[in-house]
């Protein structure tokens, strides 16, 4: 399946998309693309064919997200646990991923020529949330040791900024499994979680629209919880300023240190 659609989505898809866009649309959607191997067994094809159709489904899903105005998409492509599979399957999977993502990069140029802007796509490979959180803690420790941060700069908000993937609004997992499998544990704490029965290659636009609709129905509660969390973070940060004669100056300098730390950290990661 090509990333550049040969034709627009059918009118009824566009109509449903327009209706959904009258409500809140998640800025960041994450997908656990589960069920490729089970799909291959179900269809009596080779495992690699199941994974190939899974990548094609990703291209289709990106088109749905683009149509709705989703700004960022993160997909769980391979966990660190996947590398415990047979060497043959891992090698085939890596080669497939390379060829598919090369095509995505090539077709990105065609999209830009048509005036279409793709959302940000984050692909998590050899990933576990525990490793990401552990690395973020090490990065903050490095920042303190380098004199970029003070110990009282270490807050929940700083942790949010240090993680490589931002907070998620909606997380969708296919295949009927009801667990996160060590994926975006920190970032999904105040998100809407949708667990769908269909295997990933079988996911339909109606499944996706249904998840968006349920997110919208829960949006008020999610918003209230996030506002409460924001208030708690501000109270946490204000504790460091209570003995200061000029709290606003303390805040300004902290923000300056944090921005400098994030800049240096991003340079270090390159």
Explain what the structure shows.
It is a single chain. The protein has 270 residues and is an alpha/beta fold. The protein has a single domain, classed as Undecaprenyl pyrophosphate synthetase (3-Layer(aba) Sandwich), CATH 3.40.1180. 55% of the residues lie in helices and 11% in strands. The chain has helices at residues 11-20, 36-43, 47-68, 87-113, 129-145, 156-162, 205-238, 247-269; strands at 28-32, 72-79, 120-127, 170-173, 192-195. A 5-stranded parallel beta sheet has the order 3-2-1-4-5, sandwiched between helices. The chain starts with 10 loop residues before the first helix and ends with a helix. The model has no long low-confidence stretch (mean pLDDT 89).
For the largest beta sheet, what order do the strands appear in spatially?
3-2-1-4-5
Mean pLDDT across every amino acid position: 89
Largest sheet: 5 strands, parallel
State the total count of DSSP E strands: 5
Order of SSEs: HEHHEHEHHEEHH
Our measurement of the CA-to-CA distance between the termini, rounded to an integer number of angstroms, reads 32 Å
Number of continuous helical runs: 8
- Poorly predicted spans: none
Q: What is the CATH first-level class name?
A: Alpha Beta
Q: Structural class, from helix and strand content?
A: alpha/beta
Topology, element by element:
Blueprint: H1 11-20, E1 28-32, H2 36-43, H3 47-68, E2 72-79, H4 87-113, E3 120-127, H5 129-145, H6 156-162, E4 170-173, E5 192-195, H7 205-238, H8 247-269
Parallel strand pairs: 1-2, 1-4, 2-3, 4-5
Helix pairs in contact: 1-7, 2-3, 3-4
Pfam family, one: Prenyltransf
Keywords: Transferase
GO biological process, one term: polyprenol biosynthetic process
């Amino acid at each position: 399946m090509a990333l550049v659609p040969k034709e627009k989505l059918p009118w009824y898809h566009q109509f449903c998309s327009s209706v959904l866009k009258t409500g809140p649309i998640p800025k960041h959607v994450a997908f656990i693309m589960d069920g490729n191997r089970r799909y291959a067994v179900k269809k009596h094809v080779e495992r690699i064919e199941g994974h190939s159709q899974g990548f094609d489904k990703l291209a289709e899903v990106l088109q749905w997200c683009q149509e709705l105005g989703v700004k960022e998409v993160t997909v769980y492509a391979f966990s660190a646990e996947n590398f415990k599979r047979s060497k043959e399957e891992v090698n085939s999977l890596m080669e497939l991923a390379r060829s598919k993502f090369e095509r995505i990069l090539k077709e990105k140029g065609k999209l830009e020529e048509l005036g279409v802007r793709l959302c940000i796509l984050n692909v998590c490979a050899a990933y576990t949330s525990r490793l990401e959180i552990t690395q973020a803690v090490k990065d903050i420790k490095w920042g303190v040791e380098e004199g970029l941060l003070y110990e009282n700069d270490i807050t929940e908000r700083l942790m949010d900024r240090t993680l490589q993937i931002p907070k998620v609004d909606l997380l969708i997992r296919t295949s009927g499994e009801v667990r996160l499998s060590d994926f975006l544990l920190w970032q999904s704490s105040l998100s809407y979680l949708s667990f769908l029965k269909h295997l990933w290659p079988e996911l339909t636009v109606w499944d996706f629209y249904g998840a968006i609709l349920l997110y919208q129905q829960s949006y008020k509660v999610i918003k209230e919880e996030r506002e409460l969390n924001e208030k708690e973070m501000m109270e946490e940060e204000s504790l460091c300023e209570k003995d200061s004669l000029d709290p606003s100056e303390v805040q300004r300098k902290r923000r300056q240190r944090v921005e400098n730390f994030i800049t240096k950290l991003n340079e270090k990661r390159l």
